[in-house]
Sequence to fold (435 residues):
Amino acid sequence: MKKQLPAWLALAIISLMAGLLLALTNALTQDRIAAQGVQAANEARIASLSAAETFEPQALPEKSALSGCYAGLKDGKVVGYVSEISVKGYGGPIAVTAGMDLTGALTGVSVGGDQFKETAGLGAKTKDTAFTGQFIGKQTPLELKKDIDSVAGATISSGAVVSGVNKMGDYMKTLLPGYVSEDTGATNAVETRVVTVKGYGGDIEVGVGLAADGTIASLDVGGPNFAETTGLGEKATEKAFRDQFIGKSGQLRYGEGIDAIAGATITSNAVMDAVNKILANAGSAQPAVPASAQPAAVEPVSTPEPTVEPTPEPTVEPTPEPTAKPTPVPAAETAAMEAPAETVTVKGFASDIDVTVALNEDGTIQSVTVGGANFNETPGLGEKAKDEAFTGQFVGKRGPFKYGEGVDAIAGATVTSDAVLGAINQLVSEGASHV
Fold:
């Protein structure tokens, strides 16, 4: 009678063999994968600065947002620079490479990376020449929808790329011949104070340099925990936003010489609260203190939707019924949309919401518009239903829709999100027969 191995011993042997095979496979493939990554990165540099024949790595400043920078050489002479950065897109990290010639003009932009997971047919189009070609010949900083056209239905992905290019451009400019710093008023500051406030994505450090007369000489926004939304709240760090505060004093307000960041109410209010707090204490004898020693963060002006608001799971709860039958959009508006469009009014969290949907001939959504004369949803929360970052999720798709299946609800605004979703689904259903 033959003896059989105990079950546990057989299992142990199988596990050991599987582990050895996996280790062997990894050893055989890791060098090839690494080589492919190096080759892809080099091809992106060549595509971004085609005038260069070789690339020489450049040292980056400590805590730089960039992942790499190279001088492009031809016949041993520098003809420009190429930088690399990873930005947060809609589906995950996006690797962006940009080139710049010695005049400061962009020579090319490449988008992709081994972790690129932007939505096919939407955010994935940021890799296409139709999008990246817009950057060539232009100088940073660039603004989405003004200098660069967004990919339809992919505002987040498009904004992430533009933001990354701007950051790389800011740094590469410092390497160009004859560069002069554009920092505004930094030499006029006699004292700098820093506070930490709560933004949309986390803590924001706001540093204000005060001139001798108590006016703002410089403003810095950021900090190690800064995580505001790419392309939206992230703009608080940009010079164009910060410079609005220079030379001002007293208690400041948006709309009075200073504009908030469109689509980033919470971030904008957090920065304004911090600045006003510093200005209010400008006359005190207290010296500036590090952000880590500051008192509790200033609460942003925006008021979140009350915690008593019901938060049903959007995938199982019925969506709110529209309060009115669909009403045709005026002919002039319909013509502008170049597609059949209808509007319904639904009850949101704090107000009536008009939702307009235009359908393509194949039944997919061409555009979604949210608002109306009575729209009054919570700033920074339900108000985001009007933003293209939210409405653009439906563009190019065919309903009915469910949150978590290709479209996301607005965080902290379940009632508003569900109301809009219900209206869109009704319009898609009733409009399909007319397409």
